[in-house]
Amino acid sequence: MKISYNWLKEYIDLKGLSANEVGEILTEIGLECEAVTPLGGGPEIDERVVVGFVVSAQKHPNADKLTLCQVDTGDGQLLQIVCGAPNVAAGQKVPVALHGATLRPYGGEVIKIKKGKIRGEVSEGMICAEDELGISADHSGIMVLDNAFELGASLASYIQSDADYILEIGLTPNRADAMSHYGVARDLYAALAHRKKKVELSLPSVSGFKVSNTQLTIDIEIADRKACKRYAGVSIMGVKVGPSPEWLQKRLTSIGLNPINNVVDVTNFVLHECGHPLHAFDADRIAGRKIVVRKAEEGEKFVTLDGVERTLSAEDLMICDAEKPLVLAGIYGGLYSGVNDQTTNVFLESAVFDTVHIRRSARRHGLQTDASYRYERGVDPEMTIYALKRAANLIREVAGGEISMNIHDEYPSPIAPHMVDANLQRIRKFIGKKDISNGDIKSILASLEIKILAEIEDTLRLEVPAYRVDVQREADVVEEILRIYGLDAVEPPRKIKFAWHQPGHDHIKVSKKADISKLLVARGYNETMNNSLTSAESYNEENKTQLVELINPLSNELAVLRGTMLYGLLENIRFNIYRQVPNLRLFEFGKTYKRLNGHYAEEEFLALVLTGSYWTDTWLEAEKNSTFYHLLNDVEAILQHFKLYNVNKSYSQSNKGEGITIQHDGEHLLTLLSISGLILKKFDIGQPVYYAEINWNALLRAAGQVKTTFTPLPKFPEVVRDLALVIDRTTTYQALEQAVLKLNIKELRNITLFDVYEGKNLPEGKKSYAMRFTLRHEEKTLHDQEIDQIMQRILTSLQTECEAMLR
User: Fold this and answer.
1) Beta bridge partners of 456
2) Could you tell me what the cofactor note in this record states (predicted)?
3) Which pLDDT score is estimated for 207?
4) Per the CB 3.0–4.6 Å rule, which of 275, 544, 723, 725 could disulfide with 180?
5) Residue among 357, 350, 279 nearest 316 (CA)
6) Which pLDDT value is given to residue 10?
């Protein structure tokens, strides 16, 4: 944000403070000044460089090339100054830098003037040359001034009457109150008042506002009182639209704005003066002499000032007349309702709109203006009428005309100041300075226009002005006091106490994450990190009831906390597919959030997605697409890393897709899904996607229950037997596996599925599974008879439980 130093001085007395010094103070109190840039008119000259008169000039007793001067600076006392310039002489008027002045030489480093001794003689200032003042590179001698210069006057008032400096302030979004020259002046006032400087803060008077007649009265109706908190207007008849006067144009160009015409320039001037947006209408184009603030019709067309026809949403707030929309409220004017060279009658708007409505509309239409930028962050409702009167007075001054209606102010539900309780002892504790007095705290609050309504047992009941939207709680009050009191004024403690955190469960979680990340990267995955704020549009109506919604979202796309990791990863896939990268393996650690039975649930997950080719064409092998079982293999690698071998798998189906869930000792660990076509179509993804969502905390709990035991190397051989089974097509491998495991055969070491067949030579509705069983006894070699008995038990169980038949 650009602030003009000269413009700033209209609201606060900055005598004795250069633009650079103002920038330093602003940075100290939290309005970071990133640069101070000269803007025409000459160099920056300190106010403590004044016009002096050389009463006498004598040779220095201890130096041939120095002169001892007695100089009158208009305060009734003579200063002794040692000067080395060859042209200094009695009777001259010269620039004198007094003790404490800061000089910025032409092409040199900054000089701070101090009293001192030069070759044994006291020197109480400095008589300056042009280069020492930054005026030019001339160092041939001191600068001799015209006799018309007033004795004791600041040289800056003569040399740089047109000079200005632009302060570039890196304003944080929460400081909506400082988005104007007066807003910055308010903060400066608090800082200077705390430094015991006598300064005054004031806005220009609007007492000259006078209604001449009521011939152009415009009626106002607020149809949507949630989106429009306040709307006021006034009309002016007989204006003459044309170029703005030089002073007004200079003010606007100094901060980078282009002058348009005198009426529009006034609205921009007032916006940057007091921070309140205004809009000027051609009053003759307001049909029915009525303003209606309402929502747009869905699909309604509207041409904005830039000539673009925009399709409106039912959520867009519009300023309309009796027939048509005129302005996209708080954002952008219409092409046909604004002030132009033929305008003679003007209607001025001053309003307060809901921040969320303006933000959403601005994002929806890809617009950001000076007005929307402020409305999105919050404007001062108490500035509404002042800004209107100020603009009306200025328009009469620069464009003529008469105020032709009483101010119509629709304010159905006045916005009350915010109340905060702040305890004096806690304030001292949080600041870290026990000796800050109650008087200092109260004076800082007063300088910030925060009223103390009551004080009960060291607790202050505070009324925070409506324009301070960032001060909502005690901690915010502490921050306000601290930034004005000064961070540098708080001494760091001699001893710092801290608690030693012994590595525990959190450390294990971090360590395990690093291990699994390495494992997945080794298997070809890339890690991604998505925003936990997302849009509600991806969720179906059933799941929307569980979403955690933000009270004041930045946009519709960031309105809720994610209830699943899936949609962020699908957006990653879509983003890459659009850029010809269809083969993806991604993983993400993150949290999901849900509202269940009035309570909020927060869980941590590891999510994986697999899509595209699992490997591409090589000389050895042809391209192979990723499948559900590739992802299952990767998930099993994670389970094996945690030594979780005995897990239960079951079929799963949801609106996201179908697949399996895996449990351990009755606790849900993870879900693997083949994502449904409906969801993929919503994300414009035309290839299969496989997804795994692992409950990270449940996985760590299960891993923590695993006991590591020593098993000696087997002394006896393993035996492998295969069974080819014909089963119903709906029977799962999980069912077959469970039918065998429930027998608790101690010799059974492993079961694998090595072939699946559906087709010819099988009855309708049937399929064939080929299963391999590995057997071994710990204490002896198994004989054929024992092996046959075990295999018969297995086959009988499969026949009984799953209606399986030998093929």
Assistant:
1) 459
2) Binds 2 magnesium ions per tetramer.
3) 93
4) 275
5) 357
6) 94
> Which alpha helices (H) appear in 147-302, and where do they start and end?
156-159, 181-194, 246-254, 262-274
Q: Cβ(593)–Cβ(531) under 8 Å?
A: no
Q: What is the DSSP string of 535-582?
A: -GGGS-HHHHTT-EE-SS-SSGGGSEE-S-SHHHHHHHHHHHHTTT--
For residue 658, say whether it is annotated as part of any ligand binding site. no
Largest CA-CA distance found in the chain, in angstroms, rounded: 132
Q: Bridge-partner residues for 334, per DSSP?
A: 304
Tell me how far apart the alpha carbons of residues 233 and 227 are, in angstroms, rounded to a whole number. Answer: 17
Instruction: Tell me how far apart the alpha carbons of residues 119 and 101 are, in angstroms, rounded to a whole number.
Output: 22
**Residue 298: how many CB atoms within 10 A of its CB?**
11
**Does 476 show up as a binding residue in the annotation?**
yes
Are the C-beta atoms of residues 567 and 532 closer than 8 Å to each other? no
* Nearest alpha-carbon partner for 587 in 518, 678, 669, 663: 518
Helices marked H in 578-627 — which ranges?
A: none
> In the numeric block, which tokens belong to residue 439?
């008087």
The amino acid occupying position 798 is L
User: Is-contact 229 382, C-beta < 8 A?
Assistant: no
The number of angstroms, rounded, from the C-alpha of 648 to the middle of its chain's C-alpha atoms is: 45
Contact 180, 188 (CB under 8 A): no
Nearest Cα to 600, choosing from 656, 556, 550, 566?
550
Four-residue CA torsion sign, 315, 319, 320, 325 = negative
User: What pLDDT does 140 receive?
Assistant: 87
**CA gap 610, 627 in Å, rounded:** 8
Q: Is 470 annotated as a binding residue?
A: yes
Residue 454 tokens, joined:
């009551």
User: Which two tokens mark 134?
Assistant: 């930054």
Mean pLDDT for each consecutive 10-residue tract of the chain (807 residues)?
Answer: 93 89 93 87 81 96 94 93 95 95 86 93 94 83 91 83 82 91 95 90 94 96 95 97 92 91 96 96 95 94 93 94 95 93 96 93 90 93 96 96 96 92 91 86 94 93 93 93 87 70 57 92 95 83 76 77 93 94 95 87 95 86 89 94 86 88 91 94 94 94 84 90 93 88 92 90 91 94 94 94 91
Amino acid making up residue 736: L
pLDDT of residue 596: 83
Query: Which residues are within 8 A (CB) of 533 and not within 5 positions of it... i.e. 6 or more apart?
Result: 550, 553, 558, 559, 560, 561, 562
Beta bridge partners of 585: 610
User: Tokens 């959403």 belong to which residue?
Assistant: 360
**Residues 307, 181: Cα–Cα separation, whole Å:** 32
CB 63 within 8 A of CB 124: no
Q: Which two tokens stand for residue 621?
A: 């092998």
Distance CA 178, CA 169 (A): 10
pTM, to two decimals: 0.59
Domains in the chain with CATH codes: 2-41+165-194 (3.30.56.10), 49-161 (2.40.50.140), 219-410 (3.50.40.10), 418-488 (3.30.56.10), 505-705 (3.30.930.10), 719-806 (3.30.70.380)
Length of the chain: 807
Instruction: Report the distance separating Cα 461 and Cα 451, nearest Å.
Output: 8
Q: Which of 721, 728, 725, 730 is nearest to 797 (CA)?
A: 725
